[in-house]
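Progress report, Aim 2. The chain analyzed during this reporting quarter is listed below.
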Amino acid sequence: MDFEEKVQSTKRVFTGHLIQVDVQDVVTPKHQAAKREIVRHVPSIGLLMINDDNEMLLEKQWRAPVASVSIEIPAGKLDDRDNGDPRHAAMREMNEETRLTADHLEKITGAYSSIGFCDEYMTIYMATGLHPVANELPQDADEEIKRFTVSQKEALQMVKDGKINDMKTVLAIFYWASLNKD
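Predicted structure tokens for the chain:
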């Protein structure tokens, strides 16, 4: 079966600081005309950071789209300094957001964050052997972040209780828990 839609036209309807929005006219495999709204976003990274006490580092910050404080793993987008390298972005974001670096940085997975309307691809890493950075990079002036650590048991309970409802963070916690299964 053919699933591919044929794009007839694409119009950029919004260009912002963080995203662009395109509207496409497409023809489906069943020859139906349809419109697709697509949010364009640069690739991003997320960090499951585990300290020597086997606790994960989490961040609290305000998220305007949901008008609420969110609890998340450190994360960020690739920018010109990264030359398209998610690993470089992970190390840079770790420095900027947490003032830590890692002896070990292992790729866990990569996935689209919300494939129904957005092309953002996020690579998630696990960082261990954490220690303070030698040279601090500038932090984003528009971010207010509070960092804290939790045990795996606490993190899983926070997911169950709905205190953590950010998908990248839920995925990272479940991955971390899966490492303890035989």
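The radius of gyration is 19 Å. Residues 86-98 form the longest helix (13 residues). These observations will guide the mutagenesis work planned for the next reporting period.
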